[in-house]
Amino acid sequence: MVVAEALDTVRSLPERYRAAVSEVPVADRGTRPETGVWSVAEYVCHVRDVYVAYTIRLYRTRTEDNPAVEPMLNDLRAARFGYAGRDLGPVLDELSDDVTGWSAEVARIPADGWNRTCTRLPHEPRTARWLVRQAVHEGMHHLLDVEEIALRIRKQSPQTS
Predict the structure, then answer these.
(1) Whole-structure pTM value
(2) Is the domain defined by 3-156 classed in CATH 1.20.120.450?
(3) Exposed end of the chain (fewer CB within 10 Å): N or C?
(4) Which of residues 159 and 149 earns the better pLDDT score?
């Protein structure tokens, strides 16, 4: 995936998440559909976090020599910060802002900077290119998760005529 495609894909995500979330009744947004599967609210908060964390990771990769980047600790964040109970209106607004910041950081990577590395966990070097590709993957993958939950809920709801 070239940079322009990655940027276009990620820039489309806030509205795509907003549309997917709108398909889930407010009362169901914080409910986990099954054990071990996050709720819609937890997924949306996580994706917002991804774009903050990956902006910082890209910045550090661009400006430091092989920095060690912190793990995101996703389950801890979801539990400690009460993601399941969040009002998703403001979270979706934050996602939009965070995607804008991430996009600006991607645009600052010079042509010769794509192979600069950071280290994620011991012995896991990652390039700036990998970080961008992974951020795209995370946003798209979790959009599918949210859409799948919305579909499950629609299938379980009594049909209206």
Answers:
(1) 0.94
(2) yes
(3) C
(4) 149
